[in-house]
Amino acid sequence: IFLKLINSNGNMTMQEQYVKNPHLDTMEEDILYHFNLSTKTHNLPAMFGDTKFVCVGGSPNRMRSFAQFIHQELELPGSVDNIRDICEETDRYSMYKVGPVLSISHGMGVPSISIMLHELIKLLYHARCRDVILFRIGTSGGIGLAPGTVVITDKAVDSFFRPQFEQVILGKVIIRSTELDEEVARELLQRSTELPNFPTVIGNTMCTHDFYEGQGRLDGALCSFSTEEKLDYLRKAHEAGVRNIEMESTVFAAMSRVCNLKAAVICVTLLNRFEGDQISTPHDVLVEYQQRPQCLVAHFIKKRLGLI
Ligand code: R2B
Ligand code: URA
């Protein structure tokens, strides 16, 4: 689907829309049910049209903190305490808008983030947003890295280390590529070198559909494999370039790619999975770790906006 635009020289340019669904144009109203927003009841272009950066992460509280943090970093007027949850009428997701930055929670796992992404991508389309960059900032288990290391995802891979996402549609398996924007990843790595004490690597990120057995943990309610088998799997993952494990990156990468959205995944590692499975790091240390992806993305945004 192409949209004709007049650029600043008065010439017609072609820009691809973010949505890939011909049915949308035939609908009189589009209800973004899990956001409690609709094209009839809300002026989406007025509310969201100037959005340039969208940051998503699992937890509603973390995404509120991120909104408050970015408000301070961009030195925007008004109090951080007045930042309102746009989706407060629903308890599915939280959404905060701070200047050109949108901060949204997505819950845990592929189904939760994919519902959010469908509605987010339609929101960007209805609001006529352009040149948006999408970031997932999250937590993960590291493979062979010191806890607290930030991993910028090169390729998001599935549990077989394949850079693809499988979706069942009408009873058929559809495979989509999970490559992310290389330029944004490189630029993020460059920005990380400008921050003090900021261990950062680029590597593949494995996305699983379970936190326990699916990630080779020995400490779930069920476990059918030995310590040796676990370590063997993690070693194979490491050989395939996997540096961290989380639960959303493949569908995030696949949907962004199909919809022409530049996207990046930035996750901090909470533990080294070669050394254990339980997350036993003290709470205050975990809180500091979780701020690292936020700091990196804030630094990136400030640089892009010419503020530093
Ligand atoms: C990282 O952390 C969560 C599980 O604890 C999950 O959402 C993920 O990707
Ligand atoms: N999130 C995950 O998905 N796995 C971990 O080990 C830590 C956080």
Automatic annotation (TrEMBL):
A molecular function GO annotation: uridine phosphorylase activity
Pathway this chain belongs to: Pyrimidine metabolism; UMP biosynthesis via salvage pathway; uracil from uridine (phosphorylase route): step 1/1
Species, as recorded: Pygocentrus nattereri
Residues holding substrate: Q215, R217
Classification via Pfam families: PNP_UDP_1 (PF01048)
Residues bound to phosphate: R92, R136, I137, G138, T139
NCBIfam families xrefs: euk_UDPppase
GO BP terms: nucleotide catabolic process; uridine catabolic process
Reaction(s) catalysed (UniProt annotation): uridine + phosphate = alpha-D-ribose 1-phosphate + uracil
Protein name: Uridine phosphorylase
Entries under InterPro entries matching the protein: Nucleoside_phosphorylase_CS (IPR018016), Nucleoside_phosphorylase_d (IPR000845), Nucleoside_phosphorylase_sf (IPR035994), Uridine_phosphorylase_euk (IPR010059)
Upper lineage: Eukaryota, Metazoa, Chordata, Craniata, Vertebrata
Keyword terms, alphabetized: Glycosyltransferase, Transferase
Group of enzyme by EC: transferase
Similarity-based family: Belongs to the PNP/UDP phosphorylase family.
